[in-house]
Specification:
- By secondary structure, the chain is of the alpha/beta class.
- It has two domains: 1-36, no CATH class; 39-326, Zn peptidases (Aminopeptidase, 3-Layer(aba) Sandwich).
- The protein has helices at residues 2-18, 21-31, 44-56, 65-80, 145-164, 197-204, 233-252, 270-278, 311-326, and strands spanning 84-93, 99-109, 116-122, 170-176, 215-220, 229-231, 259-263, 282-286.
- Helix 5 (145-164) crosses helix 9 (311-326) and helix 7 (233-252) crosses helix 9.
- The chain is globular.
- The structure holds N-[2-(1H-imidazol-4-yl)ethyl]acetamide (AHN) and zinc ion (ZN).
Length: 329
């Protein structure tokens, strides 16, 4: 019976193949329904709560208890969403000569998949409010709700969705440490790359020596109500097609006022080293002013707290990034 069925099927295939092209094509078309992609709805309030949770630890400055406690929480949270988590620990030398106990937190979703996308943000916060209008604050650590916390909050919310609805490609979420330990505004240092120490380490020594991804997306300072994301210069240089892809999705979602499709300035950030050392095209979604190149009045000040975090902005960023990754084949 089975044989007969197979023979009939084989005959049908031959028949189809011998038909004129038009008919065959039509048959193929009606039989293959393009699976439409369903992108989960990113929850801005949930992301907001993940930012708030990080801030509740206090400033996440390397070599402090708050930093260690937040690292544990982040790794546990990502594990709870089904990721295979690796914590890359290293002593990194800051421009001050201090040895920082740094931790890059790497969460791998569907690690068996070859085709991968990388999402990243820095999770540490700056040890000094050296841009604060009040000089007495220049040696105090910042809460880093926006500078650090916002990008991580968006990524944890994306991880929550990845636990429920898998993407076609594998996704790695990497939370870099020691991004914001760069030279104090009132000092000079001979150290050339004092910023982004965690991403420099990982980009030279990834958790898996053969690590590769199609592209990367870095989120930094993505939480303010007045956020404006321009096409950043380093991203444009190394990965203009990824900038196109992301800004196009944002436009489709109606976010063109926030994702402005115009050139912004150059920002030295974690993505530089992913591009330079690993050769993975990586873009930076970062809010900075086109006019003065600044990152906002709260930046590196005592004001970088939850008052500057907007669930609506987090939603725009998160929904855009999710639309991009859920559409990858
Ligand atoms: C510098 O200011 C050298 N880079 C901006 C990157 C940054 C700092 N992101 C957050 N804090
Ligand atoms: Zn900073």
């Amino acid at each position: 019976m089975k044989r007969l069925f197979l023979a009939v099927m084989a005959f049908a295939v031959v028949l189809l193949a011998s038909c004129n092209g038009g008919t065959a094509k039509q048959t193929t078309k009606s039989n293959t329904v393009e699976a439409s992609v369903i992108v989960p709805i990113f929850n801005g309030d949930s992301a907001y709560n993940f930012v708030d949770k990080q801030v509740s630890f206090g400033p996440r400055v390397p070599n402090t208890a708050a930093h260690r406690a937040c690292a544990s929480w982040l790794a546990d949270k990502l594990r709870s969403y089904g990721a295979e988590v690796v914590v890359q620990e290293a002593k990194l030398t800051a421009y001050t000569g201090e040895q920082l106990d740094a931790r890059n937190i790497i969460a791998q979703f569907q690690p068996e998949k070859k085709r991968r996308v990388l999402l990243c943000a820095h999770w540490d916060s700056r040890p000094w409010a050296d841009a604060d209008p009040d000089p007495s604050n220049h040696r105090k650590p910042i809460l880093g709700a926006n500078d650090g916390g916002s990008g991580v909050g968006v990524l944890i919310e994306i991880a929550r969705h990845l636990s429920m609805v898998p993407t076609n490609v594998g996704v790695d979420i990497i939370l870099f440490d020691a991004e914001d330990y760069g030279t104090h505004a009132a000092e000079t240092s001979t150290m050339e790359n004092s910023w982004a120490l965690g991403s420099q380490l990982w980009s030279r020594l990834p958790h898996n020596p053969n690590y590769n991804a199609r592209y990367g997306i870095l989120l930094d300072i993505v939480g303010a109500p007045d956020a404006r994301f321009y096409r950043e210069g380093i991203s444009e240089h190394f990965a203009s097609n990824i900038v196109d892809k992301v800004w196009k999705r944002a436009a489709e979602l109606g976010y063109s006022d926030t994702f402005v499709n115009e050139e912004g300035g150059i920002v030295t950030d974690d993505h530089l080293y992913v591009n330079q050392f690993l050769g993975i095209p990586c873009i930076d979604i970062i809010s900075h002013s086109k006019e003065d190149g600044g990152f906002g009045v709260y930046w590196h000040t005592m004001k970088d707290n939850m008052e500057w975090i907007s669930a609506q902005t987090l939603k725009k960023v998160g929904q855009t990034v999710m639309t991009v990754i859920y559409n990858e084949k």
